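User: tokens in, sequence out, please.
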């Protein structure tokens, strides 16, 4: 190991390598550093994801120093808690940045890590390319295509776990060293295992995709590089040993990961949505300077968002990839890279090939996504590996050129780099956001309002607001019956009050909120900026004691003894009953005001003033236009009016049928079956649908 360290010092910590690192750092500074970034007055990116990462950067040091289990937190989604191994909780980065967080806080730590991400990714890719080519400039440009790729730019909009990817090219560099015999078995296994464990603590998804991609990569190499098969087999053995070291190092994390499998959602994200559109490889989104706004009439049809639509290579880089394969096609390693590039591109399309957002044909990912863990992978994120392969091909191609061809090659590569430059003039709230802190949490005023470790509900709720950051900056001084760590736990989603916290108060909200607060031992309900117009008028009707402090309104939850024994099942049944009644009343209100029966939908009734917007409707052109976001259904049904809700069992359906069934023409449960009162099964779930006469 000491010999390896000395070799790294003499071979890689030299002026050319430091020059490459300096170039990447300077570019990052010019592109992304803005006033307030290092003062904690603003943060890089936008939306709720950055504040969740700031919370994680605070949580791990807090839990360790307070003797808590860092893998299970009860500070959010209290009192039941949340398993952080199923969230993007970045423990590796939290421990790495611990000193910085302790001195300057999680906002500065997040900004520094986000700025380091492209620098380290580019430098790790540079070292990899230089080891393969032996040339500085080809390696420098290859590293650029990884550190400042469209993928990296998109993830820098707020996904710290996905933009900090230096571990992948670093692991490849170690593997190349091992293949060449420049590093012995023990140091390779130790360093590669530690790198895998570190990257696992940054993103389990990236480890899963890297492992998945290594299989076709190894098979291609084994088939195409026949002369090197024995070395490849030995390398595969060594890599397996590195994975064993990773498992040992990450054993506590993996233990709680397996433990939390039963409570995690079957799918963390919808399959087939965050995929790469075919046109995204040649049409830029606004995150690149060349993209701007001219192509938005195409890119707006892509199914994902700017953060995930990061596959843009551009015609120049695609041309270089094609030229490199044509010129070096006899090189078996170039054949491996070309084959792997094709596999990655095809997999990035997801289960269906999309062209301008429309599914054209099924793709192999339709089968691949059924594999364990892979089912939660977002195919669009495979563009990370597309850029790594592209970087290697660019470096090899430039190295093979000489004379005037080399000049032309560097000019073409320069054009490719220019086409990928970030659009720093894009809407400022995407690259940089002001710190959203009400005065209550900017100072220690919260200590005079909230009791230590009190459980609170903060509105805007979850991902709609910044409650995670407020709690982190308070030093975890209070708990929350809510939060945002990627998904809402199932035991919280069962409560109708949680759906109201996300969508707004609906009929029966007073009873629902009181029951939720009683069950979760909530002491205070805090309404911050962004939720006042929606919630303050409604909460005032509860007649709870309130005070206005530091830019927020704090409602003190009284003793709610009558709700102590109420369950989420009972409240869900009550909410379904209330929603059904609201939908039925909305239908007749809509028709009374002159609406056409054929045009009846929840959104149409909402626009007519007949239905609360909190139920959530969809546009008339949508396939789910007749549904509400809370599982209700409203629309024309035959010649009459159809009203329905999705229920969890026969008991809930029976309550609705007993109350409204007398005036219904036809009753279905579970739809499309006609209701049969004699059916004995009580566990049947489905939609209860009643058809009423128009008048």
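Assistant: Sequence out:
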């Amino acid at each position: 190991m000491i010999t390896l360290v000395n070799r790294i010092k003499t071979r890689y910590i030299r002026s050319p390598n430091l020059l490459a690192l300096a170039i990447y750092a300077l570019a990052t500074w010019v592109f992304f550093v803005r006033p307030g970034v290092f003062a904690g007055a603003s943060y890089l990116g936008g939306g709720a994801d950055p504040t969740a990462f700031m919370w994680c950067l605070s949580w791990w040091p807090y839990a360790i120093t307070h003797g808590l289990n860092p893998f299970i937190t009860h500070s959010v989604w209290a009192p039941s808690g949340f398993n952080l191994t199923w969230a993007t909780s970045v423990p590796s980065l939290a421990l790495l940045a611990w000193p910085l967080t302790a001195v300057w806080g999680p906002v500065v730590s997040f900004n520094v890590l986000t700025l380091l991400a492209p620098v380290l990714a580019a430098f790790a890719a540079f070292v990899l390319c230089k080891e393969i080519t032996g040339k500085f400039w080809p390696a420098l440009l290859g590293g650029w295509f990884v550190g400042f790729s469209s993928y990296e730019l998109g993830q820098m909009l707020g996904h710290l776990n996905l933009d900090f990817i230096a571990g992948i090219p670093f692991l490849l560099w170690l593997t190349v060293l091992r293949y060449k015999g420049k590093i012995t078995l023990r140091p390779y296994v130790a360093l590669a295992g530690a790198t895998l464990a570190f990257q696992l603590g940054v993103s389990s998804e990236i480890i899963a995709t890297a492992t998945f991609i290594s299989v076709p990569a190894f098979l291609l190499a084994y088939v195409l590089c026949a002369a090197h098969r024995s070395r490849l087999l030995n390398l595969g053995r060594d890599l397996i040993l590195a994975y064993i070291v990773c498992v040992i190092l990450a054993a506590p994390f993996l233990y709680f990961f397996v433990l939390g499998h039963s409570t995690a959602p079957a799918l963390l994200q919808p399959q087939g949505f965050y995929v790469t559109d075919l046109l995204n490889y040649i049409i830029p989104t606004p995150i690149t300077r060349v993209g701007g706004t001219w192509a938005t009439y195409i890119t707006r049809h892509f199914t994902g968002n700017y953060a995930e639509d990061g596959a843009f290579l551009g015609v120049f880089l695609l041309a270089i990839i094609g030229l490199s394969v044509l010129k070096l096609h006899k090189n078996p390693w170039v054949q491996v890279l070309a084959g792997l590039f094709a596999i990655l591109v095809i997999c990035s399309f997801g289960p269906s090939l999309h062209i301008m957002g429309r599914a054209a044909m099924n793709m192999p990912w339709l089968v691949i996504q059924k594999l364990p863990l892979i089912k939660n992978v977002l195919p669009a994120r495979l563009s990370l590996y597309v850029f790594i392969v592209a970087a290697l091909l660019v470096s090899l191609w430039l190295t093979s050129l000489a004379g005037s061809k080399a000049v032309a090659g560097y000019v073409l590569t320069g054009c490719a780099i220019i086409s990928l430059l970030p659009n720093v003039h894009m809407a400022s709230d995407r690259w940089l956001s002001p710190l959203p802190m009400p005065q209550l949490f900017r100072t220690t005023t919260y200590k005079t309002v909230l009791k230590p470790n009190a459980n609170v509900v903060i509105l805007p709720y979850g991902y709609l607001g910044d409650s995670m950051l407020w709690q982190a900056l308070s030093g975890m001084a209070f708990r929350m019956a809510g939060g945002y760590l990627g998904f809402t736990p199932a035991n919280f989603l069962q409560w109708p009050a949680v759906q109201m916290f996300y969508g707004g108060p609906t009929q029966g909200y007073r009873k629902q909120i009181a029951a939720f607060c009683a069950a979760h031992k909530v002491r205070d309900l805090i309404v911050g900026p962004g939720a006042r117009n929606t919630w303050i008028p409604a909460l005032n009707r509860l007649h709870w004691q309130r005070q206005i402090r530091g830019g927020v309104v704090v409602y003190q939850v009284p003793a709610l003894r009558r709700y102590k024994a109420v369950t989420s099942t009972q409240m869900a049944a009550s909410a379904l009953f209330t929603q059904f009644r609201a939908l039925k009343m909305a239908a007749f209100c809509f028709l009374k005001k002159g609406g056409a029966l054929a045009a009846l939908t929840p959104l149409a009734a909402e626009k007519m003033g007949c239905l609360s917007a909190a139920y959530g409707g969809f546009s008339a052109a949508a396939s789910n236009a007749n549904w509400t976001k809370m599982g209700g259904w409203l629309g024309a049904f035959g010649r009459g009016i159809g009203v329905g809700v999705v229920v969890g069992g026969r008991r809930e359906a029976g309550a609705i049928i007993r109350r409204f069934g007398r005036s219904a023409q036809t009753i279905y449960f579970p739809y499309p079956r006609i209701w049969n009162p004699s059916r004995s099964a009580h566990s049947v779930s489905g939609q209860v649908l009643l058809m009423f006469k128009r008048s």
